């Protein structure tokens, strides 16, 4: 990192101002919550990216809950005030984080957004966006659900936080694809606020209120875990087509025992690793792609032990 202490002029077409770097060369990784295996896997990727870098440090932080948006805003503001060299951010709200990211941009701090996009008001204030193509993932989940249910009957949608960028693409495209290509009736969506216990209770109620339910989709890790537990507790494992999202051990076990037919797993490690690598490239005066797809894998009992699946499971 020979040029690490030099200001970098507009390293990407999106950049609005020259980038300044802190003498400590600290990259702040700020995620929606630290209380999730998914985000801890992002941490592992970010850690791997700086491994062996003597002139760069990485810090990892996030609120206790995804719904504590104000805490995440404060964390970004604190990083800006501290003068970090760069920020990797998973915004918990597409609008609320925009002012903080603008302040980072005005301070000359490069920002890589991961997982969920900012709203249009934030365009031009960050240099790259790394994520799963959530719309493509939602459509993939819908195709498998149509296949499992025969394209008719009731399917419940268990979502997480309404309006989050990843949720808009993932759940929105799932529902749109279902409506366009099948006769399935959508029940919901229900919002767990990314709380496993809330998702468990919501799913229990949905199963009780809809004894003829043919399928159910859990759209992120804590929601899918709560959904899976509710399905097992209700004695519905194997009786309701169930698809989850993300790939922690609980979800892997649900796939193996047949509670879930499939899980869609994002490259969470890759988000952390590639996000930090992008910031380091910008710090070195290089350009980065404005959008980087970190991929998704459909994992079932048949392929869960494959290299493709094992590379993204955590």
TrEMBL record:
Cell location: Cell envelope
Does Signal count among this protein's keywords? yes
First-listed, main subcellular location of the protein, grouped into a coarse class: other
Q: Which molecular-function annotation in GO is an example for this chain?
A: carbohydrate binding
| InterPro entries named in the record | Peripla_BP_I, SBP_2_dom
Listed CDD domains: PBP1_ABC_sugar_binding-like
The source's superkingdom equals Bacteria
Residues of the Periplasmic binding protein domain: 27-286
Q: Which residues form the signal peptide?
A: 1-24
Q: Which UniProt keywords apply?
A: Signal
Write down a Pfam family by its short name: Peripla_BP_4
What is one GO cellular-component annotation here? cell envelope
Family the UniProt entry places it in: Belongs to the bacterial solute-binding protein 2 family.
Q: What is this protein called?
A: D-ribose-binding periplasmic protein
